[in-house]
Amino acid sequence: MSALGGRIAGIGLLGPGLPGWAASRPALAGEAPWQAAEPVIPPPALLPPTERRRTSLAIRLALAAATEATAAAPDRAGIETVFACSNGDGAIIGSILTALHDPAGVALSPTQFHNSVHNAPAGYWHIAAGSPAPSVSLGLHDDSLAAGLLAALTALAARRRPVLLCAYDAPLPPPLDAARPTGPAFAAALLLRPDPGAGPLLTARFQAEPAPPPPTGDAPGDALDALAAANPAARALPLLRALAAGRPARLALPLAEDAHLALELTPC
Amino acid sequence: MAGAGAPLAISACTAVTALGPGLAPLRAGLLGRRGGLRPCDLPDMPEGLWIGRVRGLEAVALPPALAGFACRNNRLAELALAGDGFAAAVAAARERHGAARIAVVLGTSTAGIEETERAWARRGPDGALPADFDYARTHDLQSLPRYLRARLGLRGPALALSTACTSGARAIMEAAALIGAGVVDAAVAGGVDTLCRMTLHGFAALELLSRGPTRPCAADRDGISIGEAAGLVLLERPEAAPGAALRLLGAGASSDGHHMSSPHPEGEGAVAAMRMALASAGLAPAAIGYVNLHGTGTRANDAMEDRAVHRIFGDGVPCSSTKGWTGHALGASGAVEAVIAALCLEAGLVPGCLGLEAADPEFRCDIAIANRAAPGLNRVMSNSFGFGGSNCSLILGRG
């Protein structure tokens, strides 16, 4: 296939010890030490208070990264979105499963039920941004970020309009967490614009062969690499580290065991 | 198809609905005006509901090598593959294009969560889920596309879309975009969604369920009947499928940005999705011969959709909802109704809403309440709208 591509025009980030893209750049670039710390997930300021009150942690996590990535965008309401997440809203799913098995009788919360849909963060985001643009929400277990990148770059190729990719995942509550262990809450967002344009160029090519083992980097096997392996959205870390350092990179994101997305980053 | 490439051939399609497996019972039901909804007979569900249940689903076996994927949703997917030569058509496409050049793009709202509900009931004294519960291959969204990708021997990208009740339609739109962008040459696309307690109790909590079989567009409509269903299409470029008569001509999507579970009252998002679909197909509204409505049977959805469709089409295009036959199959509904659109094109049929003596007198669109012969029917629009303000419209036609 020919490569898909786009320009990175905005970045959002929220993770452990990574309180936003701007604040985390030195740690990601290796210029300052990274220190683990619980992510502080802010309430989404863009939402009206009535809607804001209904948002869960997973929704707030996604909206924090989406907000930062589009903070400088003059056309926020015209941006298509792709939300990529494996676990969905684990707290809500767990709570509904518990309620379904309540011996005293089943009584689900209507708000919890409509917030349980996989596209709930997308729904709240488009309310927050006042955006009628198309949106898609998807999931593919550990490979959700690669799936999201493929969908976002395909949308960019199809319609030549800016696309916001937001990947986010939070740990599941017990007992689901034993079946699906997930590292600390993490969200990364990229605002992609058509090429040619300003900003680093990201291209992607689907390859029907297993991802090659990661090349030995300048800090192999460090704590951020461990973080990247523990949460599907944190698989964005190698790309974010290259972006922070302003260096070119070739990366392979698995997309099923026997295939991958080959990424190439060219700094501007 | 501006925005997603040229028109694509639908070189195979199939569906499983409450009327039975494959296209034949669905076609016969539509022509004979016999629906598939029945009083709910699944255990531990809310009282007094009607559902669109697929009979015999529990007995469907997956191939032993893929047994880890076993859940109600993948049993339904397996049943779908057997219908209308679908698996054989995919195998032939694999020979033509190569396994790596065929994507699997599927929509679902709940994937295999019915399996998690069962596992939850088997928790140990410490609250732990049973050791045989396979989260990654049943509960996780990837379960459905990864199962069909493995089952069909494909090596292209697999995507699981979940945009509530637009999932199946959105999957078809995304699959078309992947072909348009040159990522693949063909795609298995559609949606599969199954009945589960979470869905039925959830819609009951929202007080959106009908007390009898759903009657979309009726003045006294009282809500949704939930169904389970699978709808699958095989998309290719027309030159790769010279025998295929059906086309995906256009697709459009939008967001309401209004409310999580209520549509915009004037249907702004619905209008935007329909306009984008028409623009992508390069068609004027008058070129559409039938609109298959989302038509869930709720007060708010049907009234909004009537206003939105009227803004674009006036009263010049017959419209109806086919959910009276199948129930609302949620994440599969957009795919199933794309397949119904294909059946209508083949049969020259506008199916009138089931179970109505008259359409809501407040409605201004031309709502069909009896079947109409439409021998020249060439292009059909199918609408899907969902929670989160997600909207998607597809246009199918004859090549």
Précis, in short:
The complex is a heterodimer of chains A (268) and B (399). Chain A is of the alpha+beta class and 268 residues long.
Which keywords apply here?
heterodimer; A: 268 residues; alpha+beta; Peroxisomal Thiolase, Chain A, domain 1; 34% helix; globular; B: 399 residues; alpha/beta; 12-stranded mixed β-sheet; 3-stranded mixed β-sheet; 12 helices; 31% helix; Beta-ketoacyl-[acyl-carrier-protein] synthase II (chain B); PKS_Beta-ketoAc_synthase_dom (chain B)
What does this structure look like?
The complex is a heterodimer of chains A (268) and B (399). Chain A has one domain: Peroxisomal Thiolase, Chain A, domain 1 (3-Layer(aba) Sandwich). Chain A is 34% helix and 21% strand. Chain A has ten helices and eight strands. An eight-stranded mixed beta sheet of chain A has the order 3-2-4-5-1-6-8-7, sandwiched between helices. In chain A, a hairpin with a 5-residue loop joins strand 7 and strand 8. In chain A, helix 3 crosses helix 6. With 399 residues, chain B is α/β, with parallel strands linked by helices. Chain B has a single domain, classed as Thiolase/Chalcone synthase (Peroxisomal Thiolase, Chain A, domain 1), CATH 3.40.47. Helices cover 31% and strands 21% of the residues of chain B. Chain B has twelve helices and 17 strands. In chain B, helix 2 packs parallel to helix 6, helix 7 packs across helix 12 and helix 9 packs across helix 10. Chain B is globular. The two termini of chain B are 13 Å apart. Classes of the chains: A alpha+beta (268), B alpha/beta (399). At the A-B interface, helix 4, helix 5, helix 6, strand 3 and helix 7 of A face helix 4, helix 6, strand 6, helix 7 and helix 8 of B. Strand 3 of chain A pairs antiparallel with strand 6 of chain B. Chain B: GO terms for molecular function: 3-oxoacyl-[acyl-carrier-protein] synthase activity. Chain B: Belongs to the thiolase-like superfamily. Beta-ketoacyl-ACP synthases family.
